[in-house]
Design goal:
The complex is a heterodimer of chains A (about 290) and B (about 350). By secondary structure, chain A is mainly α. Chain A contains twelve helices and no strands. In chain B, the strands form two sheets. Chain B has a nine-stranded mixed β-sheet with strand order 6-7-8-3-9-10-12-11-13, sandwiched between helices. The chains are: A mainly alpha (about 290), B alpha/beta (about 350). Chains A and B meet through α9 and α10 of A and α2 and α6 of B.
Chain lengths: ~290, ~350
């Protein structure tokens, strides 16, 4: 006997199909995949170690042997730029995860419980928004000490609020939905209502927000590295490379141009990916 | 206190869907099988100009295995009473006084942890709008299974029980439908899933807050039939909130008529239909559509449910009552027992044989 079945119009495969037809998403995806591949296969792509001094003559202009030229200590800029992708991706992943965990938890708790919890955290959120991000991050790095990880932590502390705010708002509107009340009438506790009833319904927004946070985190970290707070030489960090390249900008512009292009390429890739995702997953957030 | 005696369960089975014989699970009530008892329950909402009296000194008893219908217009406090039982009202700006006795325990003194244990496990609730009452991101089967797993961590058994519950509520193709998401089901199907979910933990009392308002008439009949059958098979008591007297006649054992936050008349369903005493009940019944075409337009009750913020003694129905006298505007009528558990709050209805039960 033939088994009866209902053909399901699957929301998930529909989303996937829409993503594949979205130009922004596809271009962004290809760019990011290329960045990830470069990061993974960096040792195979780069001929020299990024930290090896005297790999070639000092300040060589781009040529066949050194496609991106060499720096003031004779290091290969191409290798540095290639290895820099690893730092950029790690920074993006770490920063986004910290912001995600902080922002989602605080946003959910504030939106669900309201009352004093909400007042306290909303006050903190407002406070972080009152102070220019970079200056606050500088202050936090001063407290934590220099170093790339500390810079990422500082930036996450400064910008989790932009996660918490929309999640709090969405939680507040979902909290009064009938299905949450049903869960409550059913004997579910607050934790379960927050994480099993409300959270799954805001996951599309969270995905979109995360994809938008990734490039921001990379840029902010690069800024602080540029200011000399992040990675130390000989790290292949792009921000550091840009800041070093400043000294030689007239004599050897390739020192800053190529890491700069890599940075722009990566952030544009993430931005396009995020915008494509937003169009597909969260049409209400689309701005005109 | 109310001393209520109801007639033995003798309502004929009016259902053509029912396959199981109408069991005697819901035997006649005696005094000791009171399941839920509201004593002088008053609920006031804080508004900008004082307190709004949403519920005022409501007394009500639901016995084991009985269907108690709460009837009244919109804004009479029916849902407020229902929500207060499971403490689903916002605690901010809400003042609740009186007792909510469930099996002798006062639920209003319970803390959040204790009330969570009561919710779902002992008292279940079905809401007005089945379209929004299910979590849109989970399959309906999963939702019911999760609900069962709260008590019993056996996954295979939960799955089996889900399907059997879906059969119980007459969900067609139960096994396949368990795989559906809520948006793939019709309103009637979703309400069935809701009922299945609430029954999964076999509560002793099921509060159905206008369960058929959002559904069409044929589905309404089926849902009512399911409720009735479940009462008989599981012995679940049901508190049915509705504004539809026709529905009440079909299913309820006893009726409570609410008006502007007060329980104006309670009694056995036959008694109330045969012999309504409160003018509001009478008017509500006249507003029912009948089969004869001669009547022309349906009767309506003029005016609206008043918004009561002051505590002036008067009959709350006085301004709409066709037979209101001077006295009705100056004094609050007391609840009077007319025998046989028929209680009414009206000066006009007061007879010589009546006994005052509540000031």
């Amino acid at each position: 006997m033939k088994k009866k079945s209902y053909r399901r119009y699957s929301a998930r495969s529909e989303s996937l199909r829409m993503c594949l037809h979205n130009v922004d998403f596809m271009v962004g995806l290809i760019m990011i995949i290329s960045v990830i591949l470069i990061a993974v296969f960096a040792p195979q792509i780069a001929h020299y170690s990024y930290s090896k001094q005297g790999a070639g003559p000092r300040l060589t202009a781009p040529c066949a042997e050194y496609p991106f030229g060499t720096d003031e200590l004779g290091r290969d800029v191409f290798s540095k730029t290639i290895y820099g992708t690893r730092i950029a991706l790690w920074v993006a992943a770490l920063g986004a995860s910290i912001q995600l965990i902080l922002g989602v938890t605080i946003g959910l708790v504030c939106g669900y419980y309201g009352k004093w919890v909400d007042h306290v955290f909303s006050f903190i959120t407002d406070l972080t928004w009152c102070i220019p991000g970079t200056i606050l991050a500088l202050a936090v790095v001063t407290i934590l000490g220099k170093g790339l990880t500390n810079v990422v932590i500082a930036i996450s502390i400064v910008s989790w609020a932009s996660f918490a705010r929309p999640i709090r708002a969405k939680t507040m509107s979902l909290r009064n939905m009938a299905f949450v009340e049903t869960g409550k009438a059913y004997g579910e506790n607050g934790f379960s209502l927050m994480f099993r009833y409300i959270l799954p319904n805001i996951i599309p927004s969270i995905i979109v927000m995360t994809s938008m946070t990734l490039p921001e985190t990379i840029l902010s970290t690069t800024t602080l590295s540029f200011l000399g707070l992040g990675s130390k030489s000989p790290s292949p960090d792009w921000g550091l490379a840009l800041s070093k390249g400043m000294e030689y900008i007239t004599r050897a512009p390739w020192l800053s141009i190529f890491p700069g292009i890599a940075l722009v390429y990566t952030t544009i890739g993430f931005n396009l990916l995020g915008e494509g995702l937003r169009d597909v997953l969260d049409p209400q957030m689309r701005s005109r | 206190m109310q001393e209520l005696k109801s007639k033995p369960e003798s309502k004929p089975a009016a259902s053509e869907y029912a396959t199981e014989p109408e069991g005697e699970a819901s035997a006649a009530g005696t005094k000791n099988d009171e399941l839920l008892k509201l004593e002088n329950l008053s609920i006031n909402y804080k508004v900008h100009d004082g307190y709004l009296s949403a519920v005022n000194h409501v007394n009500m008893t639901i016995r084991k295995g009985e269907i108690f219908a709460v009837v009244g217009e919109s804004g009479c406090g029916k849902s407020t009473v229902a929500h207060s039982i499971l403490r689903l009202l916002p605690d901010k700006d809400t003042k609740i006084t009186g007792k909510i006795l469930f099996k002798g325990q006062d639920l209003s003194t319970f803390n959040e942890k204790q009330i969570e244990k009561v919710r779902g496990r002992q008292i279940g609730m079905i809401f007005q709008n089945p379209l929004d009452s299910l979590n849109p991101v989970y399959r309906v089967g999963t939702q019911v299974e999760e609900a069962i797993l709260l008590d019993n961590p056996d996954k295979a058994a939960a799955k089996k029980k889900t399907v059997s519950l879906f059969r119980d509520v007459r969900l067609p193709d139960a096994e396949l439908r368990a795989e559906s998401y809520p948006h793939e089901l019709s309103g009637g199907m979703r309400q069935r899933v809701m009922i299945a979910m609430m029954l999964s933990r076999t509560p002793e009392l099921l509060i159905a807050d206008e369960p058929t308002t959002a559904l069409d008439v044929t589905i309404e009949a089926q849902i009512l039939d399911i409720l009735k059958r479940l009462k008989n098979t599981y012995g679940t008591s049901i508190m049915l909130i509705t504004h539809n007297f026709g529905l009440v006649a079909e299913i309820a054992d006893r009726i409570g008529v609410m008006y502007a936050g007060e329980m104006v008349e309670t009694g056995d369903v036959f008694e109330i239909f045969r012999n309504p005493r409160h003018p509001y009940t009478k008017l509500l019944m006249q507003a029912l559509p009948r089969r004869s075409k001669k009547e022309g337009r349906l009767k309506t009750i003029d005016g609206m449910v008043p918004r009561i913020t002051d505590d002036k003694p008067c009959c709350r129905f006085a301004n709409r009552c066709p037979s209101a006298s001077e006295r009705c505007f100056k004094e609050s009528p007391a609840a009077v027992d007319f025998g046989n558990g028929h209680i009414c709050r009206c000066f006009e209805a007061e007879g010589a044989e009546s006994v005052k039960v509540n000031g």
